[in-house]
Specification:
Blueprint lengths: L6 E6 L3 H12 L4 E7 L2 H11 L3 E4 L8 H10 L5 E6 L3 H11 L3 E4 L4 H12 L7 H9 L17 H11 L4 H8 L3 H15 L4 H19 L5
Parallel strand pairs: 1-2, 1-3, 3-4, 4-5
């Protein structure tokens, strides 16, 4: 946060005109402050280290390298702030890849300005952001290949496994708390433990993994075909 309580943002896009437009848009929002801009992969990482923003708005096309690689590098370097992807690339193809890499949200560049602002506020609040269409696609997409974290090999407790399944079903913290008779704070603790044990870089990645887990569990419960 800035000294005035604003959420500080770094803009990383290889088109200067896009960065200028974003800066002008965000200047109209009292709760955001743009503190840096970059147009290349390396400049973006350098700016991230220099200004330590609360969040990043990132394009996936950085000419010299992929934005997905940038997200992974930022997380590997210890950046714990939010990363919201703003891209012209089809969310049906890239949204899940971005979340798995460590982003908290994905917005298409053809969306309305207010969508970007709403997405920034949502990820700031700790909730992943995807468009309704992308949410539906991920919820109904093919299950990922099983791995040691999807089948319980991460050492989750029974309660953590139940909460992982509930997250995969789209339940909110309040709904999970009511379902299991827990406080919201206890649910948050369990979610943090799940995140740590699964080795997820963000809560958005937990959401993706939880959906994979739920699909795998639901498939295993289906009776065999006659």
């Amino acid at each position: 946060m800035s000294a005035t309580g604003q959420t500080t943002l770094l803009l990383v896009d290889d088109h200067a005109i896009v960065r200028q437009g974003l800066a002008a848009l965000l200047a109209r929002e009292a709760d955001f402050a743009v503190v840096g801009e970059a147009g290349t992969y390396e400049d973006g990482l350098a700016a991230l280290a220099a200004v330590a923003p609360d969040g990043v708005v990132l394009d996936l096309s950085l000419r010299d390298r992929s934005g997905l690689d940038w997200i992974r590098a930022a997380r590997a370097n210890g950046y714990a702030g939010t990363i919201l992807v703003l891209s012209m690339h089809d969310e049906a193809v890239y949204a899940e890849k971005a979340l798995r890499a460590g982003a908290q949200g994905y917005v298409m560049k053809d969306q309305a300005e207010e969508t970007l602002v709403a997405a920034l506020r949502q990820v700031r609040a700790g909730q992943p952001y995807l468009s309704p269409a992308a949410e539906k696609l991920l919820a109904g997409g093919p299950a990922a290949a099983p791995d040691k974290t999807a089948d319980g090999g991460a050492g989750l407790t029974a309660r953590e496994t139940e909460i992982l399944y509930a997250i995969g079903g789209g339940l909110t913290t309040r709904e999970i708390a009511e379902k299991f008779g827990l406080s919201g704070r206890t649910v948050d603790v369990h979610r943090a433990n799940v995140k740590r044990k699964l080795g997820c870089a963000s809560l958005a990645e937990v959401l993706v993994r939880a959906r994979d887990f739920k699909r795998a569990q639901d498939a295993a419960l289906q009776p065999p075909a006659p």
